[in-house]
Amino acid sequence: METRREVDPLGERLIPINAYFGIQTLRATENFPVSGIKAPLPFIRAYVLIKKAAADANMQVGWLDQQKAKAIVEACDEVLAGLLLDQFVVDVFQAGAGTSFNMNVNEVLANRALEILGKQKGDYKVLGPNDHVNMAQSTNDTYPTALHLSTLIALQPLLNALDNLAIAFDELGKKYGIVLKSGRTHLQDAVPVTVGEEFAAYASAIRHACDELRRRQENLYKVALGGTAVGTGANTHPEYKRRAIAELAKLTDFPLKPAPNSFEALQSLRPAQTVSSGLKELALELIRIANDLRLLASGPTTGLNEIVLPPVQPGSSIMPGKVNPVMAECLDMIAYQVVGNDAAVSLAVQAGQMELNVMTPVIMYNMLFSIQILTNYVPVFTEKCVKGITVNEKQCSQYLEKNPSLATLLSPYIGYLEAAKIAKQAQAENRSVKEIALEKGLLKKEEIEKIFSRKNLLNEQ
């Protein structure tokens, strides 16, 4: 294997001649052979966008000559177009603060920029990963900025997918808006609702969780870039921070702005936690809804069987004809993973010490993993499950007819105790409350018909 020789403060190493990464990246691959999981694409893109904005800002303030700056920017554009992605080889579990990944990016961009300038890879005296690509930067301000930016990039498709899921439930709500059924509280029969009201409530819950994520993503607009090592902005031009963040905002179409307190931005990762918590809260709603769908579709002969979920695959290797609620089961598993990811993020967020939280890599990985699996699956769940749900109207009607809780509607007329007696008799004799109320003659027939009318059952004004 042909190699080139590179030098860092710890000594010399031989690097594969065709590799765009360099000596510090090589050391990181040797030091952290942990998971085999590499940085996700949104994070690579975010980091490269930061390097592009930084090169432009340093050129504007006269610290980086135009030829070098343009070569770095061109190298960034190539990566953003999808080239050299196999050169980002550092494991997501790595050195604290993400120094290994920052140097991976610096080295790849430096070596590609050297080629653009007609030089050999590794000729860092001409254009180096530390002196030029990383100019006016530190891992300590670029990594949390990339965390914010990559989360913003990754969130947008998820938010759109959640909007579509809410719309699908709303459509079911409209389609089955007139179908009466037994409500249930404590998993016991309760006063009536419509199937449409249940579905519309699911839509509302998803929409509220989505809206909350949209609000919390605004916490990510304030970025640490320009604070460098500890928040003082050491080794930066006085105009660099403003120009670099303005350029980054222009490149991304997000309203990014400097963090009001650079020291806090390096010490505290609370903004990321708010979004991670929002993902967890969304996951809790998805779990609740998925489990409701599983219960409502249970059976078909020994469960509730009020709705039918679309069959997407055989449900058993041994029981012929069995079909399981697999789409809802998968959604549960994904949501459980999101809850667990948030626990890891929470532990990492509280681990900041003094001027820096060094646990940003594990925060990045867990947040982006949560967003990725939700983004991948929510559209599938919408199309293959929710949009194909049908309602067993006959079953809903039969359950409602025998529901002893309908005696609740008699309470204002005959009192709670008398209504309870009727409910108990209805349950014991497997008859309807209405039938027993008519039989007892406690109220006139027309009064009972009015009490058990659809309008009164649903308390419609």
Whole-number total of structural domains: 3
Distance between the termini: 82 Å
* CATH architectural type of the largest domain: Up-down Bundle
CATH class of the largest domain: Mainly Alpha
Rounded to an integer in angstroms, the radius of gyration calculated over CA atoms is 30 Å
The CATH superfamily of the largest domain is known as Fumarase/aspartase (Central domain)
| Uncertain residue ranges | none
Largest sheet: 2 strands, antiparallel
User: What fold name stands as the CATH topology of the largest domain?
Assistant: Fumarase C, Chain A, domain 2
User: How many strands in all?
Assistant: 8
User: What amount of the residues lies in strands?
Assistant: 5-15%
Instruction: Walk across the major sheet and give the strand order.
Output: 1-2
Percent range of helical residues: 55-70%
Enumerate how many helices there are, as a single number. 18
Identify the overall geometry.
elongated
N-to-C SSE series?
EEHHHHHHEEHEHEHHEHHEHHHHHH
Structural class: mainly alpha
Mean of pLDDT: 96
